[in-house]
Amino acid sequence: MSSKPDPKTIIVSNRLPVKVVRNEEGLDFQPTEGGLATGLGSIYKSGNNVWIGWPGATLESKAEEKTTLEILTSQSMYPVFLTDEDLELYYEGFSNETLWPNFHYFNQYSIFNEDTWESYKQVNQKFADAILSQANKNDTIWVHDYQLLLVPALLRQKKPDLKIGFFLHIPFPSYESFRILPFRREILLGMLGADFLGFHTYDDTRHFLSSVNRLAGIGNNHGIINYNNRQIMADSLPMGIDYDKYHSTASLPETLQKEVEYRTAIGSPKVMLSIDRLDYSKGIPQRVKAFEKFLEQYPEYQQKVSLVMIVVPSRYQVGKYKELKEEIDLLVGRINGCFGRLSWTPVHYFFRSYPLHSLSAFYRIAHVGFVSPLRDGMNLVAKEFIASKLEKKGVLILSEMAGASKELSEAILVNPNNQKQMVEAIKEALEMEEEEQIARLSVMQETLKRYNIYHWVDLFMNRLDHVKNQQLAQKTK
Ligand code: GDG
């Protein structure tokens, strides 16, 4: 008698939650504990579940690939090996120079190129093949993000009954932006291979449904799409954070030690904080310019407040990112040169990343969290800042253009393009009474505690199950 294997869940993302690093002794495997890795950790590590993705480095020989495969499979991961050319064309090219700018409304930065599109299709096929090599009929597949938009349909073609979920971590743009893409229809049909499609916000879902309707001629009924005799659902599902982790890290001895160290070194009575990857969507120059204007307009705040700005290196091979770095360097130099004193640095700027307890110490010393992206799918930094405020004191300035603003309405909400409003928001934040700070933060903490990352994962899986059950019910009618 043949026994059927237990159904498993396969998580798929461009990057695995581990990074291969080459050192003198050979290959080293370091965990990359992002929000997604934490939230999905309990899933992929249990039973025979697996996480499929690129291990973060190109490998130089078959022997290196073999070692990587062995080590990763023993940790419930399965690698997709990419070549330097794949990375240049599929990742830096189509993903980050075509889709990323288009989805963030930076169409002037979008490059349309047949070669990068071909590579995107090929690499999506590579991912689909890797998944198919691991997937059985009753398995659940959860595909993540804009690098893998074609994967759901590639899987569906080969295994029509698979249960496939897809989550987009960045905004889905309005039809007017999306329709600019030359390969727009193929992309939509790729996504429609999924049974359930999740987005951070209601607007992202609405934009997706509108494009499906107008570009593929497929309508919907309150997010339910009927396509190829299959019921598909699209819905908004804002991603949460591991609230308890950020809350408890904020009281660790090493965090508190760093906090004292940073507070003393910065010296300024008040601290504003921003943390982002180097990215033009994050509105970093606009934020620095608003701070400059603030110091000019309200000189009484000079020597009283500093902006601590952490910019984490990212996608440095992509031309626009290099230009952005140069722009930020110049701006920070200008402000510090113009306003700085021996005893006071207006902008403390760090182009590097930090371990979690240092990040937590920065969240702790900040009176104001200054999160002002021009466009952001969600923005987890805003949520982590709130979760780290054990005494409930602190003010969040948050861009309306971040998905997080839909949940965190007690923040001071700003349009990052409106400099005057940003300047006034800084003043309001610095002058807010403690009682009001506590009232606002308490509400936001309650929201984030309840709608945490584990809740998000459960909700996603429940929705996916629900759609699949509806499909079965429809079939048996
Ligand atoms: C994409 C979407 C969406 C940052 N610096 C350090 C560090 N970080 C961590 C933060 C946070 C994460 O990186 C950044 O997350 P964001 O949400 O702010 O932004 P993206 O990287 O652009 O993420 C975004 C997200 O996907 C999830 O769906 O919210 O809109 O663009 O967790 O804490 N972590 C450490 N050291 C650092 O220096 N350890």
Automatic annotation (TrEMBL):
Domain of life: Bacteria
Similarity comment: family membership: In the C-terminal section; belongs to the trehalose phosphatase family. Belongs to the glycosyltransferase 20 family.
Name this polypeptide is given: Bifunctional alpha,alpha-trehalose-phosphate synthase (UDP-forming)/trehalose-phosphatase
Organism listed in the record: Reichenbachiella ulvae
Lineage: Bacteria, Pseudomonadati, Bacteroidota, Cytophagia, Cytophagales
